[in-house]
Each structure stands twice: as structure tokens, then as C-alpha cells.
Amino acid sequence: MSRPLHRGVSGIRNSGNNNDFWDSQVKDKAKEDMDRNRPSDPSYSSLRFPFRLFFPDNSPSKYGTTENGFTTDPFSIGSPRGWHKLTVLFLKFSLVVVVILALTGSFWWTLSISTLSRGHIFHGYRRLQEQLVSDLWDIGVLSLGPSRMKEIEFCPEESENHIPCFNVSENLALGYSDGNENDRLCGQSSRQSCLVLPPVNYKIPLRWPTGRDVIWVANVKITGQEVFTSGSLTKRMMMLEEEQISFRSASLMFDGVEDYSHQIAEMIGLRNESNFVQAGVRTILDIGCGYGSFGAHLFSKQLLTMCIANYELSGSQVQLTLERGLPAMIGSFSSKQLPYPSLSFDMLHCARCGIDWDKKDGIFLIEVDRVLKPGGYFVWTSPLTNVQSFVRNKDKQKRWNFVRDFAENLCWELMSQQDETVLWKKTSKKNCHNSRKPVSGPPICNKGQDIESPYYRPLQNCIGGTRSHRWLPIEERPTWPSRSNLNKNELALYGLNSEELNEDTANYKTAVRNIWSLLSPLIFSDHPKRPGDEDPSPPYNMLRNVLDMNARYGGLNAALLEAGKSAWVMNVVPTSGPNYLPLILDRGYVGVLHDWCEAFPTYPRTYDMVHAEGLLSLETSQHRRCTMLDLFTEIDRVLRPEGWVIIRDTAPLIGSARALTTRLKWDARVVEIESNSDERILICQKPFFKRQAS
């Protein structure tokens, strides 16, 4: 396990005995007063105590006694000391009067303002009151200290691969069927309140790029039967030995992904897959991606492939793809729109992905058209497209004819068809849909239906994206990597200027340098050499899968790429803040819209680092349906053992977050940015807790 960082809440001081001394004086004086003459009014003592601040009791021992045994009068008229005391008393009394008059005036002024103004003030007062309660709660948590805070318990073994919001058995019980049982269903009961432990024989994944081709069997939920019976084009693989699974292309059982991608390039009219970038292709959505072999091969060609597949209890395509260090998330075409903006991807790929494109009147093809950029490509490989089989199976021919005709009504051009693979190109012309024959194909969405960034909205039976100001064919866009640096006119489409983007980029460049300088010695000293892993030559790749919980313009992604880090970033745009996800995707990155009061659509232990800048401020400024602890528990679920959490926010929120890390059993430290800054950075590492074999 990693070297523990400094624990404990910094900056918290416990008071000494001063308060005890003050309490003892008050109790002794109260007892003396009651013994002398107990008042009949029971509220006397409660009213009298606050005024002791202005009119303190005078102890006889302070002033002494006369020969007759009487106490000397400190307010004697003939004494200069008496005049002084009277003056002080008068000033105190005057202060009380002024305060009372000020409060009374404020009260009458409040009653005299208009009803509308009172409403605004009341609303503001409620906001302040709620914030005060939150702040007091945070102060209470901090004051308890680590020793008084109860640590969160570990989840039972059956939760090792559990994803809240995805419960097939529960969906079936609720009546979902026909593929809808795989739907995402989030509610209050779907939140997880325990910490997920890794499997018994879990091992830290191998560093990239070794980890792309070899993974540990114990890290994923898959059976030997599933390994050898997976027959899709990009699924098949081989077992090297009992503990590892290999995806190397040298394997005799490996399907020819390189030949397959070369074939697609030729169908477009390119020499090979290395020319995809020159054709305007950078981001690819791989539907039902198998185990990510298509995206793994294209990564070396500067192409970024996002894998989406249904939730699976075992042998998950998404889990194995992420374990290899490749972009993936759970996504379903069954009934809801994907959480991506319209016009997001340059290519969509489906190789025996299991989706019946001819079902539900072609509504799945309409969703493909929505997320595909103008001039983008749709590649479909399926036995259904094999023309030679039509002679023996008329039903296949009928289904293929429907897909072909429907694609034509979407204004797609059928560019090529070879064996079982078909390639279409989406139209680059907006007016193509208006030139169709009457009542042919789905209609164009009206303004209310054509939402640019839907969040799990029901599938729409109309063509979307045609109203977008981002309608620009991929061949007219700058090619990668120039595409990541948008010009002045392109930024204006998102309401930004060059100065804002340049400042964001510069800040993240500095942040990445600081993060690497902080983490490099810690990681390298903790793991100079793992069993079966050679020492990496600098610069070694410590992190591969990175989750940015509040990506803004994609600045962290851009800084990591410019620094030459072999990491990919899942850029998440919270639904509670400004939506710059279209900008992020147009820059050639991958990302998704998400509500952080819900579970992220991924399996446990899938990210090496989680980054969040300003997320706590953003979430606390909204009407919160969840707590900071809920958010941190979800971070712990998606974070790999020995993974890192980097949070930057205001000092009070970082203080509250730092206190919660002890409940999560994280090692944590707070780092000051600048002496005059009110922001802090919280750096945490998740320890590697092992489940005991039963």
C-alpha cells in the first residue's frame, strides 16, 4: 500500500480552560444571588445574564470592607472613582439605548417597504439562513476531529461490480422489457452509502501501454466461458496464463482489427487508417465496442474512440475496455437519447453491436443521425448486410431494405458496401431534408424538440441538429491537432473570446506541472518496481484514465496533451452549471453531461485520477439533493485503489472536504496555492484495502 500522507484536520485548535474559568465564576455568582434573595420571576436569571456584559456584579473582596463591616461604596459621590464609574455606566447604558433604537428603526423600515421588496429580502434571507446552517454543520464536523468521526463501512462482496442506477432485476420487476430493462433508472434509493472493496485477487493495472494489451483476470468480472465464446469482430481474445488476459494482435485467435480498419479507410476513399485525420475524423463513437480493440488500434493513429455498451452483470464490454485504459461508459439506445449534444462525433461504428436498426420505425437510426456531425460516417458491420444470404433468407432482405431506404430518407449517402460492412456518409447540406419527397422519412424537429444537449430524454422521432449554429461539415473543420485551438469566430459561437480560452489553458498548464511535480516523487518512491513490471524510463506514465468532474472548456485535457502525457480525459460537464460540452467535443475531446447527485455510468475502479476544480462551489450554490459525502462516496467508487483525487476550491469548502476524507479512509493533505489566495488544493490518495478470502 502507498505511503500514508499526513492525516488529521489542519488548522483546528481546541480551546483551553478559559471558558471553564468563566463558567465557574458565573455559576458561583448565580448561586450567591439565589441564596441572598431568590426572585419570584423564574425568567429573571435568563434575562439578567446577557446584561452582565454591560452591568457586571461587583465582588466585595474587590473593594474591601470598612471597620463597621460594610462594603465601601465604589459610586460614592464625593469620590473621583465614583464619578468615573458613573460615567462608564452611563456610556454603557447609552450604547444599549442606541442598539435598541437602531433595531426598532430597522424593524419599522422593514414593515414600510413594498410587498415585492419584502419577497426579495425574504428569499435572500432564506438563502443566507440555509448557507448559515450548512456552514455551522461544516464547523460542527470539523470540531469533532478525526477521532470522533465514524468511518464509512465497506460494502458486501456482491457490490464489487455494482453500479447504482442500473438494476436489471428491479427494472424487470417494474415491468420494463423489450431491451428497456437495461435502462438507467436513478432515484433516492440508488445512492450507495458504503465503500466498494476490490475483488480478493485484485492487482494494480499495468502501466500504459503495457496495460492496453494485458490485464489481470481478477480485476474484471468475466468467466472463462465468456472469454472463449465471445465471437464478435472485436471481442475475441486469448488467455496468456491463469492470471492474465492478452489482447495482442499477434494472437492466432485475434480477429484482424488492423485489416478491418484498413478496409473502412479504403471504403471512404483513403489509402489507410492513418489518413482518417486528414479526412476530418478525430472522435468515434463505438457502439457495442466488444472489448475496445477497434479503439485501441486507432489510438495510435491520433483517433479517440468512445465505447458505449449496455450494463452487463458479467463480461462487461465497458469494464474491460476501461481496464485496458481506453475511453468507455455505459450507454443504451433502448429508449432514451444519449447524454451527448447534437453533432458530437465524426464517425459512429457498430460491428455486430446487437442493435436492431430496423426496429421501432428506425428511431435508433434517428439518434445516430442526431449525434453525428455533418459529413460524418456511419459504419455498420452485420450478417444482415450480406447480400449473398438474401437468396436463402427473405426476412433478412426485408430488414436490410428497410435500413437502406430509411438511411436514404435521412439524407445519408451509401458510399460503399463490402462483404458484411456498409458505410454511409451524412449529408453536409442543411436543405437536403427539405428537398425530400413529401411524406418520406421522419420530419425535422421543431424548436421545442430540437434540444442541443438533452440529458437522458426519451428518443425523438424527428431529425435533430438542423437548427444548430454548430452545423459545419467535418471536411471544413481544421484537422487534428489544430482543431483543439478554436479561432475567434468559432469561439464566438459559444459566447467566448480568445482571451478567456487562453487564460484557461495557461492556468491548466501550470496546474498540470504542479500536479506532476507533487505526484511524481510519491508514486515513483512508493512503486519503484511492481512484480512483473519493469522500471519505466522517464517520463513514465503514472496516470491513464482521468475523470474531470467539472471540465469547463476542457482545459485539463488540453494541458495534459500539450505536456505529452499519455492520458485520456473523460470531460464531464455538470448539469448544474454552464454547458460547454459542445465546445469540448468540437475541440476533438470526449465528454458527457452528468448530474453529480446521481451515480456516474461506469463500473467501480475505473479511473486513476479524479479532478474537480470549483465543483464544490458549484454544487453548494444550487439547491442540493445530495450531500458532499454522497459526492465523495461516488468518487471513491469509480477510483482505482492507489488512485488520486485533486480538488481545488475555496478554503472553507476544502476544510469541510478535508474532514470528510477521514470517513472515507483516504490519505489527504491540503496545499496552499498562493499566500494571498482564498483557494486551496486538496490532494488525496485512496488506499489499497484488500478483501479477505472467505
From TrEMBL:
Q: Name one GO cellular component term.
A: endomembrane system
Q: Does the keyword Plastid apply?
A: no
Tell me if Membrane is a UniProt keyword of this record: yes
Q: EC number(s) on record? A: 2.1.1.-
Name any one GO molecular function: methyltransferase activity
- Report membrane topology: Single-pass membrane protein; Single-pass type II membrane protein
Q: Where is the composition biased (Basic and acidic residues)?
A: 25-39
Q: List, alphabetically, the Gene3D superfamilies matched.
A: Vaccinia Virus protein VP39
Composition bias type Polar residues, residue spans: 12-22
The main place the protein resides is membrane
Name of the top EC class for this enzyme: transferase
Q: Which family does it belong to?
A: Belongs to the methyltransferase superfamily.
Put simply, this protein is called Methyltransferase
